[in-house]
Design brief:
globular; Aspartate Aminotransferase, domain 1; alpha/beta; 13 helices; Aspartate Aminotransferase, domain 2; binds pyridoxal-5'-phosphate; single chain
Length: 390
């Protein structure tokens, strides 16, 4: 069999994002044993780097073996027992997966249905908890299917705690790309994924459990239904007990170490500012071309993922195909009701750079013009460059 030869794409979809050379080098480091003292040292450092990324002092801060979805699964599996009440703010594909998973763990699910394209309002959470108390409230910080950023998390956390519930937040598409303050906002459980704004290939799900969530774990009447994702077992491999549970994904842990070190060196706030500036440039460029963004309220646009409506007269699928074939550039298509009607453009990690923004605007402008769309093809680059250079 000949060796495979994947191309080096420019990744501007909803994830994965481009991987920096230092992270690739970490993947190539020698595989040691999962009980090797040097690996334990790496695990300890990864935990400390993860606490910086989550901005938390939480003891139970580790990386689950699996992609972002394993973070969702671990959170729900460990927090919920049969008959528990959970309120899920469902406003997109990812928050839309939570009810199904929670039900599989025996929970009574109540959904706060949020129209696609806007964030959950704090009063909607308050109303749901007033109607009936719940053990857990869950929502998504950066909803990758719509491009909505959930604002007011601190306010929502307070509403939850006043009503005796804990708050679980999905930051798979936002951690490392937008501001997220686990401790300052008093969020109880947060999980993420490596391949979006953390700039590491897919395969791990960072997760953090605060005091209230640890208490829920300690007070469980029944064992966690999933053995593989049982945090009470996994924890004893990450802490000083070092009890084998499953073989740590050694090389991926090394890669996460490198990715998180790069974030530390850049500085989390600088990195967040870089993503915000590139998103501002992208949005200005798209609007200058005459294209419309799906999320109406600018304050609720997620900097790491932009949903842009495909203009009249264009071929949505052909546009993406041409971007890939002629420009080596990947973006995502719309999901659900937006299928065939929108594009999802990611600015995650290494993707949030001027060259990515300018190339995308120039390429998509040319393609749409050729398809006969009435857009101002050249205006996009000019408007974005003014922000980038300004
Ligand atoms: C990508 C994503 C997930 C799923 O992560 P996988 O790595 O594909 O398992 C979950 N939530 C959000 C918000 C995402 O963007």
């Amino acid at each position: 069999m000949p060796e495979i030869d994947p191309p080096s794409r420019i990744l501007m979809g909803p994830g994965p994002s481009n991987v920096p050379p230092r992270v690739y080098r970490a993947l190539m480091m020698p595989t040691v044993g999962h009980m090797d003292p040097t690996y334990f040292k790496t695990m300890d450092q990864v935990q400390s780097l993860l606490r910086e990324a989550f901005v938390t002092k939480n003891e139970l801060t580790i990386a689950i073996s699996g992609t972002g979805m394993s973070g969702m699964e671990t959170s729900l599996a460990n927090l919920l027992e049969t008959g528990d009440e959970i309120v899920i703010c469902n406003g997109g594909v990812f928050s839309g997966r939570m009810p199904e998973i929670a039900r599989r763990y025996g929970a009574n699910v109540r959904e706060v249905k949020i129209p696609w394209g806007r964030a959950t309002k704090p009063e909607e959470v308050a109303a749901a908890l007033k109607e009936k108390p719940a053990k857990v409230v869950a929502l998504v910080h950066g909803e990758t299917s719509t491009g909505v950023l959930q604002t007011n998390i601190k306010e929502i956390a307070k509403i939850c705690h006043d009503a005796g519930a804990i708050l679980l937040v999905d930051t798979v598409a936002s951690l490392g790309g937008t501001d997220f303050q686990t401790d300052a906002w008093d969020v109880d459980v947060v999980y993420s994924g490596t391949q979006k704004c953390l700039g590491v290939p897919p395969g791990l799900a960072p997760i953090t459990f605060g005091k209230r969530a640890e208490e829920i774990l300690a007070k469980r009447k029944t064992k966690v239904t999933s053995w593989y994702f049982d945090l009470t077992l996994i924890r004893d491999y990450w802490n000083e007990k070092r009890v084998y549970h499953h073989t740590g994904p050694i090389n991926m842990t090394n890669a996460l170490h490198a990715g998180l070190s790069l974030i530390q060196e850049e500085g989390l706030s600088n990195r967040v500012a870089r993503h915000a500036k590139m998103a501002k440039a992208l949005h200005a460029g798209l609007e200058a071309m005459g294209l419309k963004l799906f999320v109406q309220n600018a304050a609720e646009r997620c900097p790491t993922l932009t949903t842009v409506l495909a203009p009249e007269g264009c071929d949505e699928v052909l546009t993406r195909k041409t971007l890939l074939e002629q420009h080596n550039l990947e973006i995502g298509g719309g999901l659900g009701d937006l299928k065939g009607k929108a594009w999802r453009v990611g600015l995650m990690g290494e993707g949030a750079r001027p060259n990515h923004v300018l190339l995308f605007l120039s390429a998509v402008g040319g393609i749409l013009k050729k398809q006969g769309c009435k857009i101002h093809a050249g205006a996009g680059v000019e408007a974005a460059a003014a922000i980038i250079n300004g």
